[in-house]
Amino acid sequence: EAGVAQSPRYKIIEKRQSVAFWCNPISGHATLYWYQQILGQGPKLLIQFQNNGVVDDSQLPKDRFSAERLKGVDSTLKIQPAKLEDSAVYLCASSLPTGVGSPLHFGNGTRLTVT
Amino acid sequence: AQSVTQPDIHITVSEGASLELRCNYSYGATPYLFWYVQSPGQGLQLLLKYFSGDTLVQGIKGFEAEFKRSQSSFNLRKPSVHWSDAAEYFCAVGATGNNNDMRFGAGTRLTVKP
């Protein structure tokens, strides 16, 4: 099966600019997640979607971050305006919704550098 | 809230040697525990998970982990390391088994010497 696709792989922007990341989950996976992985740390969940509805966005900095999954498939994560501390790898993951502990399938991530 | 600590930032082992990566968790009840591996430039891949039952869990790629409630630990082991095992390893703990409450440790980077 095709894995989780993310683009771009790398992005360099200046602070106060905006940026968007795209994710296409594994076909049939209704649940989609965005994680932020800062260098030297484990991934931190930003937002979880079930189909096109938000399940959990408690750790999303809503003053600058937004995400959508309009048709319940692809998703976009946006940062506007970016800050230096947003430099990180942004990982998208998907899973089947059924059952506890349904494994996460991760994409390769987008590495963001804010200068 | 649950949390996890991986005491070793970086470990180096020789190819063919045994491996143990440490993971300590903090949670008042029985946790859900996971180990993920991340190769350079890649996303994370689930190695194994513990929810209940047998405290020794077998995973993919020859890895196993043992849940020890008395020590609040879930250490990952492999009897003989291969060069392809060089990667970053993340332990994670959850309260419900649902992915949205899973908390990752900071990771342990494994280097394998020839």
Structural class of chain B: mainly beta
* Percent of sequence in beta strands of chain B: over 45%
What value does the Rg of chain B take, in angstroms? 13 Å
* Computed structural class of chain A: mainly beta
The helix tally of chain B amounts to: 0
Annotation, overall tally of beta strands of chain A: 11
Amino-to-carboxy terminus distance of chain A: 37 Å
Total count of helical runs of at least 4 residues of chain A? 0
C-alpha Rg of chain A (nearest Å): 13 Å
Unreliable spans of chain B: none
Largest sheet of chain A: 7 strands, mixed
Helix and strand pattern of chain B: EEEEEEEEEEEE
| Beta-strand percentage range of chain A | over 45%
Tell me which oligomeric state these chains represent: heterodimer
Distance between the termini of chain B: 41 Å
Question: Helicity of chain A, in percent?
Answer: under 10%
Description:
- The complex is a heterodimer of chains A (115) and B (114).
- With 115 residues, chain A is mostly beta strands.
- Helix content of chain A is 0%, strand content 48%.
- Chain A has no helices and eleven strands.
- Chain A has strands at 5-7, 10-13, 19-24, 31-37, 44-50, 53-56, 65-68, 75-79, 88-95, 105-106, 110-114.
- In chain A, strands 2, 4, 5, 6, 9, 10 and 11 form a seven-stranded mixed β-sheet that branches. In chain A, strands 1-3-8-7 form a four-stranded antiparallel β-sheet, with no helix packed on it.
- Chain A is globular.
- Chain B has 114 residues and is an all-beta fold.
- Chain B is built from no helices and twelve strands.
- Chain B has strands spanning 3-5, 10-14, 19-21, 24-26, 32-38, 44-50, 56-58, 64-68, 73-78, 87-94, 103-104, 108-113.
- In chain B, the strands form three sheets. In chain B, strands 2, 5, 6, 10, 11 and 12 form a six-stranded mixed β-sheet that branches.
- The A-B interface holds A 3-4, 31, 33, 40-45, 48, 55-56, 91, 93, 95, 100-109 and B 32, 34, 36, 41-46, 49, 51, 90, 92, 94, 96-100, 102-107.
